[in-house]
Amino acid sequence: MTIKKLLIANRGEIAVRINRAARELGIATVQVYSKADKDSLAVRLADEAIDIGPPQASKSYLNQDAILAAANATGADAIHPGYGFLAENASFAAAVEDAGLVFVGPTAQSIRLMGDKVAAREAAAAAGVPTVPGSRGRLDSPEAAFALVETTGFPVMIKAAAGGGGRGIRIARTAEEFHHLMPQAQAEALAAFGDGGLYVEKLVEGARHIEVQVLGDGRDVIHCFERECSLQRRRQKVWEEAPSPSLTPAVRGLLCASAVALAKAVNYRGAGTIEYLYDDRSHEFYFLEMNTRIQVEHPVTEMVTGIDLVVEMIRIAGGAPLRLRQDQIRVEGHAIEVRINAEDPAKNFLPNPGTVSALSIPGGDGVRFDSMLYAGYTVPPFYDSLLGKLIVHDRDRPSAIARLGRALAELEVEGLATTKSLHQALARDPDVQAGRFHTAWLEPWLAAHADALAPATPKLAPTIAP
Amino acid sequence: MATQQIFSPLPGIFYRKPAPDKPDYKSAGDTITEDDTIGLIEVMKSFNEVKAGAAGKIVRFLAENEEAVMAGQPIAEIDV
Q1: pTM score over 0.80
Q2: How far is the C-alpha of A56 from the C-alpha of A463, rounded, in Å?
């Protein structure tokens, strides 16, 4: 079926992004909103908007019944979940389809499979994708776990089978630490997720985070090459780029082929991302997880391939087959995305909601700003701190970094402290310029460069006291 | 005895307990010290403890568990 009216079950910059893609496809849009988002840019841009409840996400953006009722009331025939909230909730995807609507994403079965880390790892191994040495399945007893680490060696990571977003991960460097941490991890997993299942894997130190974008139509799968997202703070990505500065063409070919093999093995439908750890000394890569949604950092892939991933996922959800063959997809130049968050880098990234008193958005060739901001907008405190993403594209990596510095200098978000100064300092850093980093690089760098993170020009005091 | 209010230091969601399955930090009638935690404010997914700021006895809470609050909004009343 062709989608005529799309309900956007999300907020912030991604709701704006989905609205733009839908309108370019000639699809009418319905924006759901919590009471805290009544004045949001996404609401202003949509054809229709409908209140789904109070500010708390649990009572609005996570309220499945309210969202389905909004779709029914407005006559929407499809729901796009964005990222976060209900995007990777298999029961929501099933409920949408049971209500006779299109879910813009994969099947509930794919979401469920990839949402269980142990099952996902088994599926990856079965598709021939390398996995980090560790438990083949979930470990329910500390004895079984200890027998395993005697074969992998230390250090190891202990993770909750039902966890996510880096929560509940512990690192043991010795057998003694392992004996101490394992029962603790099990109790915590049981309390946090209602499932004490754990798995254990070897910690690959100094690894990079590289991920492959795929698009599938339920029959065929293509890849749109990789992104590198090694610059992370507290396991949250802050700077992403495409292509990776660290892959050789041969490794890139193997990595992308492995992602396609896994997505094909599960008959994947829609946009998805397979995440890997990459050890640039051994050139080995290992499957981390598959994200069954559009990702925050999707624009860098769009900039280097020219493919509108959100448009493609909506077309596929409407029943269209893939319209590109693998040999038609090429990478041109280099793209970088930086996350502009309402956080103060000079104050240990203190969240900083408040009112945008003035806004200057950078322009010029190869510059894109995907955001939820407008001058006069009051950023609510109830959701994550992502205000927008500045994305640049140029012929090669050094030019893209120079363009990023130029665009950041033009960006002014008055009234709030943002992460702009962090990105300006990173763009000037010799290691960043040389692509010499890994996933544990940024945090010590932040500790060593605290002075460089104060804003270059003094601004009004932040709107909240520390 | 004088009555004074405890204000939310931040805008966000107020919680009276450390986790959904845990008991409240404090209840009306409890005696508290200056450094006692009386609740949490969730602001942009980060959790910040609200300290009593003064010793005394809690008269009543003015904000409910999981209520959306503004910075500077009174959340409890205490006798000091």
Answers
A1: yes
A2: 21
